[in-house]
Amino acid sequence: MSTLGNPANIFWHECPVGKAEREKLLNQQGCVVWITGLSGSGKSTLACSLGRELHTRGNLSYVLDGDNLRHGLNKNLGFSAEDRTENIRRVGEVSKLFADAGLICIASLISPYRKDRDACRALFPDKSFIEVFMNMPLELCEGRDPKGLYKLARTGKIKGFTGIDDPYEPPLNCEIEIQQKDGVVPTPHEMAGQVVSYMEGRGFLKAQ
Ligand SMILES: Nc1ncnc2c1ncn2[C@@H]1O[C@H](COP(=O)(O)OS(=O)(=O)O)[C@@H](OP(=O)(O)O)[C@H]1O
Ligand SMILES: Nc1ncnc2c1ncn2[C@@H]1O[C@H](COP(=O)(O)OP(=O)(O)O)[C@@H](O)[C@H]1O
User: Fold this and answer.
1) Considering every ligand atom, which ligand is closest to the CA of 162?
2) Does 152 map to a domain?
3) Domain named APS kinase: which ranges (predicted)?
């Protein structure tokens, strides 16, 4: 017999303190900044720089980094399409909890499949899912190669590496795109500034 709970016997329990009250306390709106892009495109750099900028401004955020989560919550997952889908699904659900807590959740994962990112977006029907595409050319990311993984992938020592022998599907309708201007990569501070401007313009950085 299945050990899974029967959904018919599982009920939602409402608590007296709700999201709006928590947001008022924090003077901000709970949301997720979802950073997607190739390995080496600058996802973690932007996540950290944005976290610092928000902290300086008095906004509470928390970074969920793909690499870090694979040491714990997602340590049983690999890089097959199915495992990546499950990885993104779990982080989407955790992001939803953080946003419900009133925090600005910064999720930084390759998240190569459009359908997986769109499934996360669907968890946030109130437009509080802000997708940020690190639109950096493969040659730049591969040239950086801070962990030496592209080199291993090129020599066949890692199979199924995103951008080399595994797909990356760029967003079609993201909220923010970070890219080079005249061949120059924006600084981490400039990248964070672009996201902060977007959030400020839409009122996320104060309570409703
Ligand atoms: N096969 C393969 N493909 C892509 N990336 C690989 C792979 N194997 C290991 N790594 C390392 O894992 C990091 C990506 O983890 P994510 O959880 O963000 O990946 S995914 O969203 O599930 O695709 C990624 O981190 P970043 O470089 O920060 O993107 C790599 O360091
Ligand atoms: N805007 C930037 N300007 C200069 N170097 C950067 C920038 N963004 C990332 N880097 C560098 O590129 C490398 C990869 O960045 P990282 O944030 O780890 O990428 P990802 O998380 O997408 O794998 C790191 O060595 C980082 O210092």
Assistant:
1) 1
2) no
3) 29-178
67 Cβ below 6 A of ligand 1? yes
Distance in angstroms (rounded) separating the CA atoms of residues 36 and 88: 11
**What is the predicted ipTM?**
0.99
Residues 82-122 pLDDT 10s: 999 999 999 999 999 999 999 999 999 999 999 999 999 99
Phi, psi of 136 (to 5 degrees): -110, 140
Chain centroid to CA 32 = 7
Distance 87 CA to ligand 2 centre (A): 22
Boundaries of domain holding 72: 18-136+169-200
Pocket lined around ligand 2, Cβ cut-off 6 Å: 37, 39-45, 144, 146, 185-188, 191
Q: pTM value?
A: 0.98
Q: Is residue 141 part of a domain?
A: no
> Tokens standing for 97?
């909890």
| Inter-residue contact 169 to 112 (CB < 8 Å) | yes
Domain annotation covers residue 5? no
Residue pair 36/47 in contact (Cβ under 8 Å)? The answer is no
